[in-house]
Amino acid sequence: MKTRQLVGLGYLLVIVSLCSAFYLPGLAPVSFCEKGTEECQTQIELFVNRLDSVESVLPYEYDVFDFCKDDHEKRPSENLGQVLFGERIESSPYKFHFKEDIKCNKVCTKNYKTGNKEDIAKLDFLKMGMQLNYQHHWILDNMPVTWCYEVEESQKYCNPGFPIGCLVTSDGRAKDACVISSEFNKKNTFYVFNHVDIKIIYHSGESEGWQGARLVAATLEPKSIKQADENNLNCEAGNPMEVPGDFKEDVTIVYTYSVTFE
Length: 262
Description:
The protein is α+β, with helices and mostly antiparallel strands and 262 residues long. The chain is built from 3 helices and 17 strands.
């Protein structure tokens, strides 16, 4: 009897592990329609999960960092696997409607003053996250939002997360994601990924006789962009968002995003 119980427990742990490792939209499909349609859902909500790093055993909830927060924060119902594995899923300020492309929308602005102890602590914690390569984990329609990039021999690698930012060390060595751009080249400097280009791929039910569409994939590309004027945003080009290792001048970080549907 004990042997059967142990075997049964083993199967349960495997099932829980699989459920925690993957988000399967097909388990609870949601149909999305364009804004103004009553038959199905029009708004798409993006949720954020806890951040982790292969360089640290400590995960952190999204709210611990000084990121943009949802004005009406809520937590969705978590399944058994997510609860057992300590997931901390909550709503985000990144919201949009189905098939409505967004170009360079501001989420929030974060200001850090050199004479303010609280600002110094917040920025130091953000820099710690970049130095240890902490990763965002975002969720859309129960799917992980993945970051896909090219590696050796034109191979593409997709990661279910993306970094806060990266660091160029005092001896000029580009760490982690700082290797993706030659613009990340200033010694003893952090580069914040304060902009994301989100691409959502969907499957329409029109040819199959059902209303709306189902989301089948969501990817993003993180970018570091310093905004010269937050009232006149440019998310296509510009200097990267630098945070000096030595906090001697005030720092302003404008967080933005763009969305396209395919």
